[in-house]
Amino acid sequence: KQPPTVQPSRTFLVRDRGALVKVLIDAIWYVEADDNSCTLHTADRRYIVFSSLAAMEERLASPHLVRIHRSYLVDPRRITALRERGVQLGEQLLLVCRTHRQELVRRWKQR
């Protein structure tokens, strides 16, 4: 008998206070773009990465992150409520643009 194969966890390397840190992609709640940097938000930390949101979306390549606005990627599994013009992740409210709303609702129902 062969032992079961273990899938390696998907991680993303970020520089944090002078050190390289592995962040689990599944631990990312949402990504927020601001000019030429992005902030990765997890349950307990924030990590700043100097990259565009489009490049970040491509680098993370997560089936769980969906674009909801020109400034946001969000993990629908973390959404606690859908609002008329936004989504709620705990206490945090993020805007959703009309262009991405239908896909977000579809993905949120599948979670």
Structure description:
The protein is of the alpha+beta class and 111 residues long. Helices cover 19% and strands 41% of the residues. It is globular.
Measured distance between first and last alpha carbons: 35 Å
Number of strands: 10
Beta-strand share of residues = 35-45%
Helix content: 10-25%
Q: What would you call the shape?
A: globular
Strand arrangement, largest sheet? 5-4-3-7-6
- How many strands, what sense, and barrel or not for the largest sheet? 5 strands, antiparallel
SSE topology:
Elements: E1 11-16, E2 19-24, E3 28-34, E4 37-42, E5 46-49, H1 53-60, E6 66-69, E7 72-74, E8 81-82, E9 86-89, E10 92-95, H2 98-110
Antiparallel strand pairs: 1-2, 3-4, 3-7, 4-5, 6-7, 8-9, 9-10
Task: For the structure shown, list the relevant keywords.
single chain, 111 residues, alpha+beta, five-stranded antiparallel β-sheet, three-stranded antiparallel β-sheet, 2 helices
